Amino acid sequence: MNKQYHIYGIGAALVDTEITLSDADLSAMKVDKGVMTLVDEVRQHELISHLANHLVASRKASGGSAANTIIAASYFGCNNVYSCKVAKDDNGQFYINDLKAAGVHYPRHISPPAGITGKCLVMITPDAERTMNTFLGISATLSVDELDVTAIAQSEYVYIEGYLVTSPTGRAAAIALRQHAEANNIRTAISLSDPAMVQFFRDGLIEMIGDSVDLLFCNRDEAISFTQTENITDAAEALKKLSKQFAITCGSEGALIFDGKELIQVAAHKVKAIDTNGAGDMFAGAFLYAITQKLDYKSAGEFASLAASKVVSQFGPRLKAEQHAELKKQFFN
Questions:
Q1: Can you give the pTM of this predicted structure?
Q2: Average pLDDT score, the chain
Q3: Signed CA dihedral, 288, 157, 175, 103: sign only
Q4: Which of 113, 120, 169, 204 is the most buried (most CB within 10 A)?
Q5: pLDDT tens-digit profile of 67-108?
């Protein structure tokens, strides 16, 4: 049976501010490099004020890890739905409008309540590493109420953001989404999202995965830490017990893909990395697009690697709409 939607995603709704800075700046502000840290609004304002001269001129866009993935897949050609929680404020209205502009459906039954839409401060060092300090705002209360059960049943895949593990209600919503999918024979996909999520919330992530998911996305550090192994080879073997297929991104060394039968090494596209923010999200979005178009996992990995290389070669976690079409033309023609 043909489904109405390709992917149903769930994750935080965040409006990003991107800043370039030095390692010394991070140290001076006592910010842990390379991970996502949850902060309150006062602390976030503190950091922004301290770094006012570092602001990167960039187009305002809706953010959040799963949102980046779902929006990318949508621009490539998927028909997607995204569950999140925004407030009835200017950022919240902008966020919903931005989803719609990308062709992503927002559950109709959700009416944004009073509050503050989540915000993320993304700090980029000269080595292109991204460090995030996030004020979740109303996203911290994302719950099963934001799920659209009818749309879930009409989707080929559900995609779950690992960051939801930090919120009790968000984690419960992620688990409920996976269970709804399993009950309707819908394929399940999850991203581990961040090394800090694996380090501090491993048990919660295992709960979100359940017995097994169909597809898991992570990077090398997350894979090794999550499986409590010493190297990527052992990590890949351990992941086979948690997911039927998976993709481990390895930066400039490409990616390691497991299609359920064999491990496939995918080469990276050589580019000068400027900003790694959103690279994993784009990889997942391009990969999901490719497999919903019935490409094999090797081809999907190669397309995802190409798309991720484009993201890291410029500032920001997303590409412009026309860049997605250019990548498709470059890869498929």
A1: 0.92
A2: 92
A3: positive
A4: 120
A5: 999 999 999 999 999 999 999 999 999 899 999 999 999 988
In sequence order, the 6+-apart residues with CB closer than 8 A to the CB of 288 are: 6, 7, 69, 73, 78, 157, 159, 189
Query: What's the half-sphere exposure (Cβ side, CA atoms, 13 Å) at 232?
Result: 17
d(CA 200, CA 165): 10
- Identify each DSSP E strand in 35-129 by its residue range: 36-38, 62-63, 80-83, 118-124
Strand partners, 256: 248, 265
What are the Cα distances from residue 261, in Å, to 240, 246, 299? 10, 11, 15
The pLDDT tens digits for 282-315 are 999 999 999 999 999 999 999 999 999 999 898 8
The answer to whether 145 and 109 have CB atoms below 8 angstroms apart is no
- The amino acid that residue 15 corresponds to is V
Domain 5-12+65-112+140-332 fold is UDP-N-acetylmuramoyl-L-alanine:D-glutamate ligase (3.40.1190)
